[in-house]
Amino acid sequence: MTLLRRSYLAVAELAWSALAVMALAHALVSWMLLALAGEGKLTGDAVDFLYYYLVSATTTGYGDLAPVTRAGRLVGVLFVLPGGIALFTAVLGKMLTGVGHLWRQRMMGLNDYGDRQGHFVVLGWHEDITPRLIEMLASERAGGTPPTVLVAKALERNPLPEMTDFIRVDRLADPEALRRSGASRARALVVRGQNDDETLAAALVASQGVETPHIVAYFEDVRTAAMLRRQEPRIEAIASLSSELIVRAAHDPGASLVASLLFSPARRDTVFSMRVPAHVAPMRYGQVLMGLKRDQRVTLVGLAAGDAVDLNCDEAALVEPGLVLYYIADHRLDPASVRWDRMATAGS
């Protein structure tokens, strides 16, 4: 009874297994009936029969192979054509339904991108901010890198299907959503909730649940950002610098413009970072400064060791493997393309 019930359900739902069995059975019966009708030209060679059967089922009808006997023509008209066309239509309809289902899943945020790597994950949606954020991330995306994955709530559909993939959640602080977004192998996570509490919860869950190389969280309150930095140093918690920029612009006209230029990916000569490779021998900051200017035509502005960032470093400061260099350039440098071995001669 269980087997019969399963078979009935498979046929009723037009499962792929049921369609395959029906197609095979119909093809075999068609071959037998044509053979009995004396259609040796159609049934004598397996390739010729398969060609005739598929051409008939798809209503292509080239005419190079066709029944020649009256009985064969009746078999074709009454059995091969109706059954083949019905099966072909069922298969085509099921394929289109499957494609449509996959597209709806993607648009409605139900897909799984857990195997993705090297991409960005954005947690949170703001109508007036997030589109520009995703656009800027996309502008610096290297060829072959997967698109950004947007994880957001209160959205029914992907708001930016041309630039992102989408995961819909009920809350941002959701470990399962992070898994589905491929956060464990992402290049970086960007977190900005509807308020600081949501951002804090999502950032902490992300820092505990995945081993991403970088997490960036934006806060309205400077104190919350400072607290998170103390609690979880590997999260880059940032807050609005509007007050600082106002004061700097008041003292130094044009300072706010310089700041916007330095951090705009849409413009030339912006700030980039680069980690010193493990094989590089330690050298002085002045040597790296002169070497990068000479060989790469970029301007070194500082370095970071852990959480400490030193701008305008002393020339004698030591640059060692693992430290992060900050530089101004019109393109991002590949550490492997830098002639580190020539740095020792720079400035000598």
UniProtKB/TrEMBL annotation:
Pfam families referenced in this protein's UniProt entry, alphabetically: Ion_trans_2
Keywords noted in UniProt: Ion channel, Ion transport, Membrane, Transmembrane, Transmembrane helix, Transport
Transmembrane segment boundaries: 14-37, 49-68, 74-97
Sequence ranges assigned to domain Potassium channel in this UniProt record: 26-95
GO aspect biological process, one term: monoatomic ion transmembrane transport
Protein name from the UniProt record: Voltage-gated potassium channel
Organism, as annotated: Aureimonas jatrophae
